[in-house]
Amino acid sequence: MINDDIEIKGAFYTPRIWVNLAQQYMAEVWGDLSKYYIWDCAAGIGNLLVGLTNKHYIFASTIDSQDIVAMLNRKEQGELNLLENHIFQFDFLNDDFDKLPKVLKDIIDDENERKKLIIFINPPYVEAMNKREVTRGKINVNKTNIYKNYLE
Prior knowledge:
alpha/beta; Rossmann fold; 4-stranded parallel β-sheet
């Protein structure tokens, strides 16, 4: 599953054993996860969401359009239990929340509903750049809108 393209982008394929353990820990804290909205805002191909059951409460976003295609394929194959319009392209470090699907934006904007929102994420990372990476697009990856807004 891991390939050069994923490595270049700084993505990481989360092994199923870690997903199961993370979901187990979450259930120990919050109980029945199907009662919570769960959003993986750096979903990649959606591994963290495999096994979750309430498709009306699960959201997956990624910066990469190819990941969207992969998640839609996994949905069709029965690997992911998500609604098609809950899978969307979004750069959580740079995009404005107005770009979110209306249903998720409404949850975030509603104080009571927002209390039931779990951000479930294995954040992307980028390793320190060296001369080889300069040609592979890793320049200034830390200069996000979040970085700029909270620099002080």
